[in-house]
Amino acid sequence: MSMNLTKKILKVHLAKPSEMIPGEEIFLKVDQTLTHDINAVMTYLAFEAVGLDRTQVETSVSYLDHNLLYLDNKTPDDHIYLQSVARRYGVYVSRPGNGICHAVHVARFGAPGKLSMGGDSHTPHGGAIGMLCIGVGGMDVATAMTGVPMRLKMPKVVKVTLTGRLQPGCNAKEVILEMLRRVGIKGGLGKVFEYTGPGAAALSVGERVTIANMGAEMGATTSIFPADEQVRRFMKAQHREEDYKELLPDEGCEYDEEMEIDLSRLEPLCACPHQPDNVIPLKDVEKKKVQQVFIGSCTNASYSDIAKAALVFRGRHVNENVSCTCGISSKQIYIQLMRDGYLEMLLNAGVRLLELACGPCCAIGQSPATDGIAVRTSNRNFKGRAGNPTAQIYLVNPESAAATAIMGTFASARDVMGDEVEKLASVHEPEEYPIDDSMIMEPLPEEEAKQVEIVRGPNIQPLPVPEAPSDYLKAQVSLKAGDNVSTDDITPASAEFSSMRSNIPLMSQYCYHRYDPEFAARARSMGKSFIIGGENYGQGSSREHAAINPMYLGVKAVIAKSIARIHKGNLINHGIIPMVFENPADYDRMNMGDELDIRDLLEQMKTRELEVTDLTGGFSFRVRLELSDSELEVVSSGGQLRYLKKQLEEQKKNS
Ligand code: F3S
Hints:
The chain is an alpha/beta fold. Helix content is 32%, strand content 19%. It has three domains: 261 residues, Aconitase, domain 3; 157 residues, 2-Layer Sandwich (Aconitase, domain 3), CATH 3.30.499.10; 178 residues, Aconitase, domain 4, CATH 3.20.19.10.
């Protein structure tokens, strides 16, 4: 039977069942895992707790890339722990300064046809080279490392046919912003976007990564491009042609949905505050004064992205009212840009070059001023994402960002360069990248690894493990949140907060800090509680601390209109029951502080339909558990760690 590319890769990795039916659960054998420093401590603490000697997947990589500001002891404590635990368990380490996880992974570890799971929502970045890459929570990565097949709801596959060619001044960013404009931030739920057509064939890997990476903003399971001539060229340029194999959808294969974008008709676009699907043509954005421009992040800092931005800057200067920074995504791209003279163009223009790290993208430095307008090439513009909730973040492509930095207000490359914008079309990805893996530490041989001492500084606190739910739950509502609450709202980003993520007793004090500063104290004083949420609760970053911190503060269940995919997985993994209103209008009847009561909780959970009584409001309402059998087992067991240990013990007994 002819198959699309997604199904082909899933089929090869399928452990059970034999059929792949959209919406039904499948279990997959994973080839690669990826973690990064500000989420990973919990992952490796969980892996330590299961008691295996070594990662059980082909390749596990630990990236030290997000928080390189050592403000105090906390981040160095984390990095030393992560390096030593990786040495102990057979995990590669990409050291600080080597680059951002997704950029390095696609260049040095990724390969067509592989299946990877990463503890970061932008793991789909690797879809640019015909790999199936799925963003999950940290506990899921720990599980994948044990070699246990991973559960996934079989996604629908959407064929996205790209035709035409991007115009100079437009970038792959326009393709993904156009996708977001059309399908919205929830439109990708339960779907894989598979790109094809002559327009896709013309996009380099440096361009494809932007589209695959930012597919996460649609809530998609992942996005993927065929492994074709562009991928072969990229792998060759990485001196890894032997890892290339052609991988295309079969002729005449079927898809669940189809859409088409003519690249020639795209114009520079802009995602306005505070959601990435709030997309309008850049020319229609009100010409306000811009305070800050950031060019970079994993999404839009390929060689060609930065080179094109540099050409916009050539012979021009950053406006005196603008602070413009540039964060390049990997060491090899930095070196190539330096050799080709592009870094000099940026420096001459007054652009400030940052460390090779995520940095401003997750509010680790470069927060905008009070009420500041920030223009960024990264992927998220949620309120507070840049570290200042009063700021407004606009997302554009690197060429437009450079033009905006020069003009001091929103502008496209054509606005600045006129017809000279055509010159941008001459920039291509290099035929050969500088190869130097000296910043990657290879796994130690097994016997040597067993001798490694894991170093735990004071910031490395034990992983809290929830209790299994009891049969009667009576608790108050500690928070009534609105629609589209992001994991940034729940667990704020910034250098200071990120460095607390290995220390839950400390970090939990800042749970919902920017959204509702009283939340942590209130939840703690309630002992146990419910959170009420609106639509798309927990969207955005995969950070599982958005589940761990509420769990630590006693939250037993979230009742929302809808819950984002990765966050729902994290709630399950950390023993918080994710419930969905059967009638969303019941949300309006409830208030913070209401006392809720659920009888026969465990029995009701089995039916996946529960009755909840609001004792304060004097009414009852129904909620659903949108959980598979295995998810139900996990949450009923008190989370993934307890469940996984049970599974591994049974496996041992039966072997
Ligand atoms: Fe880093 Fe931002 Fe990408 S935090 S991994 S650059 S989304």
